[in-house]
Amino acid sequence: xxxxxxxxxxxxxxxxxxxxxxxxxxxxxxxxxxxxxxxxxxxxxxxxxxxxxxxxxxxxxxxxxxxxxxxxxxxxxxxxxxxxxxxxxxxxxxxxxxxxxxxxxxxxxxxxxxxxxxxxxxxxxxxxxxxxxxxxxxxxxxxxxxxxxxxxxxxxxxxxxxxxxxxxxxxxxxxxxxxxxxxxxxxxxxxxxxxxxxxxxxxxxxxxxxx
Length: 211
Known about the structure:
CATH architecture of the largest domain: 7 Propeller
Mean pLDDT: 96
Number of strands: 19
Low-confidence stretches: none
Largest sheet: 4 strands, antiparallel
CATH superfamily of the largest domain: YVTN repeat-like/Quinoprotein amine dehydrogenase
CATH topology of the largest domain: Methylamine Dehydrogenase, Chain H
Number of domains: 2
Shape: globular
CATH class of the largest domain: Mainly Beta
Helix content: under 10%
Order of helices and strands: EEEEEEEEEEEEEEEEEEE
Number of helices: 0
Strand content: over 45%
């Protein structure tokens, strides 16, 4: 049990360690998948609430959005606990995050202003930034098609094409409806959650991904 003060949010399953990683206030908690118990030692961040985070599969780092701590990205080594902080050059409210591990690129979406900020995971330096739809709360990297899908609550899915690891183009803002901010990408489909509005119940919409 993590306790109410942990204010849990995002979670990730790590197949290699058979652990569930959970974003909490002040860092990342770990749960043993076999025993379903809280691993004693949490990964300590810089403070504030951990929002979206990504785990390296070929390395030992965890990348964590911490908007409460002056909009930084925490980089925590799972083996040593070492912490590094990367800034976002004035962009604020960094909630969603996706990772292109093969090309060493981290995709951070900010809300103030609404941007895709691309970071080099080797250096932490900004590669580029691309305007996207506002009030985003989820982002996915489609490695097969080299695309980023950012779900904006203002009523658009922003589709950004990765031309190469250093160059990105906003290719479309696909209309959804106001309030659609979360979803899940799987294979050739992007499923989004549509909140209830008026007499309309909550729904799940399926967007087929073009090749």
